[in-house]
Amino acid sequence: MICAFTACNENTNAEELEVELGYEYFPLEVGKYLVYEVDSVVYDIGAGIILKDSSKTYIKEEVTEEYLDDSGRVNHRIKRFKRNSLNEEWRVSDVWVAIRTERDAERLEENLRFVKMVFPVQEGIEWNGNAHIDETTIIPIAGESVEVFKNWAYEIMSVNEAETIGDFTFPRVATISQANSENLIEKRYSIEKYAAEVGLVYKEMRILDTQIINEEFTFEEKAEKGFILTQRLIEYN
After folding, report:
1. Banded model confidence at residue 34, pLDDT cuts 50, 70, 90
2. b vs e for 46-67, b when ≥16 Cβ sit within 10 Å of the residue's Cβ?
3. Contact 26/125 with Cβ under 8 angstroms?
4. 205, 148 Cβ separation under 8 angstroms
5. Taking the model in full, what pTM does it have?
């Protein structure tokens, strides 16, 4: 509870306590949905040539059910839909799970459990958001093996910042760095932004590997495998 960090008085009410903890950055409610535009670039070595496959897709996430797990925690089932253009019908792609406790917020994505956020949401807080994931886990990207989760370290970079994402301007946004490391052959960058009372509004990932040791090129120019992903909120209720 926040009382462990600051003195509480008799006038402290539940609403004030929630704002201080930052639960509003990770809202969970049955019927809530978020729609994203996703741009991606996948790197692939084909016939000695580095290919960059660019694509745009749309993702809809909707909280469809609330239930208790074996530990008595409230789970929220999130049904995910995809389509390749705004004119297509949505098709169900998979189902994920989100859990918010007094201490943290988790998401189970493709059987990988991430601790997305910790409470209270305060600038400078650090934690191991991939505590349930082996960092040597191999993820196949365009037929290549990539250790996506190497050298991840979560930190809240800013809180309560006004920010414009696409067509929306949100008065209170929390920015979380999940990974930001680079050496001669690997780049791991991942960041997420959450708006109060909305949830995830922006995500960017740059997971890139190379054997080209040439500092005259940026990683995006010399990468041989991996991907770049940008996800922006375009609709919500």
Report:
1. very high
2. eeeeeeeeeeebbbbbbbeeee
3. no
4. no
5. 0.90
